[in-house]
Known about the structure:
This protein is about 50% helix and about 15% strand. It is α/β, with parallel strands linked by helices and about 210 residues long. The relative contact order is 0.17.
Amino acid sequence: xxxxxxxxxxxxxxxxxxxxxxxxxxxxxxxxxxxxxxxxxxxxxxxxxxxxxxxxxxxxxxxxxxxxxxxxxxxxxxxxxxxxxxxxxxxxxxxxxxxxxxxxxxxxxxxxxxxxxxxxxxxxxxxxxxxxxxxxxxxxxxxxxxxxxxxxxxxxxxxxxxxxxxxxxxxxxxxxxxxxxxxxxxxxxxxxxxxxxxxxxxxxxx
Length: 206
């Protein structure tokens, strides 16, 4: 699943939407809690945390996203650290399952008044906001809102993601001899390319 997302973003580089993909950065600040980093043409830099699924029945709740591991870190805290380092940084969370409460807060964060009104109408969202997001952001509502605005999420299962990639492959690549393209074979070549260039930037020229 993680490899499919890396290929998907590699194709963004081929297509020109992104300028560079770096799989598993070596620098500790860059590698914290992520699988890869994507530099975009608009000069933003995305830090991708890819988690195929969670073992909890409730899915990706705010509590699960904020749950600390044995190192005292969480999915949200790692993304927050990346966003805090530079205003051009963005956090991306991708999984087969959605994160509905986090997504709802992200939606309403476009306007502080809208966010406040939505929190006033939901005790559950307010509890999650106060218990998991405010402490993460040093108790500062402005930092919470900046964090929400600086992140995005993707919820897509493996089969759908594979279909999306195969569509992009057929659009971007062709056989010189005119034979039909074999998307599975091209995916294999791109996986090899990723592994051969692990820890090194991959650009369109690569």
